[in-house]
Amino acid sequence: MSKIHEGHRQRLKKRFITEGLASFEDHQALELLLFYALPRKDTNEIAHKLLDTFGSMKNMFEADIDDLVNIDGVGEHVASLVKLIPELATRYWFTGEQQAFQITSIESAAEFAKSLLYGKPAEHFYIACLDAAYKVKSTRMLSKGTPSETPVYIRHIAESAFRSGTDKVLIAHNHPGGNPAPSQKDIKLTIRVMEAMEPLGVTLVDHIIIANDRSFSFVAKQLLDNNFTHEDALRAHYSSGVMTDFYKDRK
Fold it and tell me: CA 101, CA 109: separation in Å to the nearest integer?
């Protein structure tokens, strides 16, 4: 690496330390990040190439790792670093805010699920284990699939509930296609989860589906079927009987 490039790196790093990222253009922020994956290369050109290819930093961070690797100059090392950033950001937020997140209403459950699933280009499936006050004890991603489906194993849900010592769980997954309405597979899965949780003494609080800014709640749907308004359904607080009614109606 030339002394010119070395001096540029030092100036950019010092600028970040003294000013933060607020005054950085997107390509400069990305260039700074790439320093740590490409210590001997000029990262400016690669930063521009990534942004030109994906259109924005958001799209780049959400891109499939294979699409990243295929860009000239971006190998597995760079692609792994790019994919690491949003995962670290999620974990950082989780250890602070989410760990104390209280899920007592459908609205709060949807908000929590969006924090896990918003913007993911492939289907992901999560379980959140809650304590007696409906506060999140632990969250675990159980599977990651394609843009249209993801495999879910009931035993993994049961194991997560058992290990946490909880008697309440919330499950959530996303529909990257933009329609939060459940498929027949989603409905059958929800029933199977309830059947598996019942002998364990664990309540399935809700199953939330996220599609960008939209969400679907199985409990909200049950309340709407019982002549609740949409606004009242969202504000409704969870009770152990609502999901049980859903299950009984479909046995």
Answer: 10
